[in-house]
Design a protein that fits this description.
alpha+beta, 6-stranded antiparallel beta barrel, 25% helix, 42% strand
Length: 367
């Protein structure tokens, strides 16, 4: 039994020792680097300048009241279409006591003046019996003036009290109307809110914002290193994060002549007119990326840019020496001439053909 145990332990020790040697030998073996093989192909390359920004209506109008007061009715809400002249809300006037008192006083004075003019006109005709045409016309004119002044005084009192006269209801300032055709983007007021009229000293309270959603504009910024490559009229491709698989065409129409600084980075504003298909609805304020094509080449020989090595002003690729060497992967370093790059693929103008095989990315593999 003891002899068997000794033999067993000896075999176990030898196995452990052999396993250790095998493990260490495997660890010390050189790693064979295996590369993927890439073949040049004919492709179209486009170089872009990317601008980040947002899509917004070209014309957004803020509807403001022409009279101060309290909102009594709101007829529209955000998202609804509105026509020019359509009523959005109604404002109830809160009369100012000084103006109200002055208007009432003006009515009283006009009534007194009219009564006196009527009395004088009647008494004149009664006393004289027969009057000249000139005196008759003068008296009638004075009476008409007094009646007109009373009418004006009463209308002024109506305006001070109600903000509207019965004669010009359709022109009332208390009815806040849209000034353009479009979609209501926002109605920031509610019934009961106080509003201030727009004047030279105050912008006034915004009743609603209305915009033509069929005429959209991309507004974004590009880096100072790219702005020199841009000019008006260049084609633009817009991608909007909120709209999956939708790419919109646009046309560059403005490049700012003046820079702005954003966190220490010099940026220039650009604008592009967006062409929106009838079946696509773009909401105001969507963030978007604009790809502006600055150069394009079709049918050129290309390789992944990662396969090209740069040494100073020269560029090289590694060609597979022969078809039989695919397993062994021996390569020949060759100088090439490059052209346009889109950041992923690069144009090769000299040094390789479409039949060559080029060293690509590597993978670690043991023999």
């Amino acid at each position: 039994m003891k002899k068997f145990l000794k033999i067993f332990l000896g075999v176990l020790f030898a196995a452990l020792l052999l396993g250790t040697f095998v493990f260490l030998w495997q660890k010390t073996r050189p790693v064979k680097v295996v590369y993927t093989i890439v073949q040049p192909k004919l492709d179209t390359l486009k170089q872009f300048v990317v601008a980040t920004g947002k899509v917004e209506p070209r014309d957004e109008v803020l509807i403001k009241p022409q009279i101060s007061g309290i909102v009594s009715d709101v007829y529209k809400e955000a998202g609804q279409m509105v026509r020019k002249g359509e009523v959005i809300a109604t404002v109830k006037v809160v009369p100012e006591m000084g103006q109200l008192s002055s208007a009432e006083s003006r009515v009283s004075v006009a009534e007194i003046s009219l009564a006196q003019t009527r009395r004088e006109f009647t008494e004149t005709l009664h006393d004289k019996g027969v009057v000249s045409d000139e005196e008759f016309e003068q008296g009638r004119t004075d009476l008409q003036k007094a009646e007109e002044e009373l009418q004006n005084a009463k209308e002024n009192l109506e305006i001070v009290k109600n903000g509207i006269t019965s004669r010009y209801k359709e022109l009332s300032n208390t009815q806040i109307r849209s000034t353009i055709d479009g979609m209501i983007l926002d109605v920031p007021i509610k019934v009961g809110n106080s509003v201030i009229q727009a004047n030279t000293f105050n912008d006034g309270t915004t009743i609603a914002s209305v915009a033509d959603m069929s005429n959209m504009l991309f507004r974004g910024n590009v880096d100072e290193t790219d702005v020199g490559k841009l000019h008006e009229g260049m084609p633009v491709k817009l991608t909007i994060g909120a709209l999956q698989n939708v790419e919109l065409d646009a046309n560059l129409e403005y490049v700012s002549p003046k820079a702005t600084e954003d966190n220490g980075v010099i940026m220039f504003e650009v604008k592009a007119a967006v062409k929106i298909p009838a079946d696509v609805f773009v909401r105001a304020g969507y963030s978007a990326n604009a790809s502006i094509v600055i150069e394009s080449r079709e049918g050129v020989l290309t390789l992944p840019e990662s396969t090209v090595e740069f040494e100073g002003e020269k560029t090289y690729v590694y060609l597979l020496t022969s078809a039989e060497d695919i397993a062994e992967q021996t390569f020949d370093k060759r100088e090439v001439k490059i052209g346009l790059s889109d950041g992923i693929n690069i144009e090769l103008t000299e040094g390789v053909t479409a039949d060559d095989k080029v060293r690509g990315a590597k993978e670690d593999k043991k023999k």
